[in-house]
Predict the structure.
Amino acid sequence: MASARRVGSAFGSGSFSNDRLARFPDGYPVRMADMDFHLGDGDVSFYGHARIAISIREGHYGFVTCGLMGNSAEEAGRDVGGVRG
């Protein structure tokens, strides 16, 4: 039996906005959203903003993200600039 193991930092919090349904060029649907998040692992933590896309096709799925992180929520927000809008 394989053992489960978590790799990397855990999300401390996340909030989603601009949740919408889009379509790939072939017409297949993809769910898109913006996510503000906090990652924390012991004494190290980061805040960030990401745009995510999730698609499920039969037994396959895809997850794509493009994000920025900073030492504070304000820093991550400044770095995003025009990406959010």
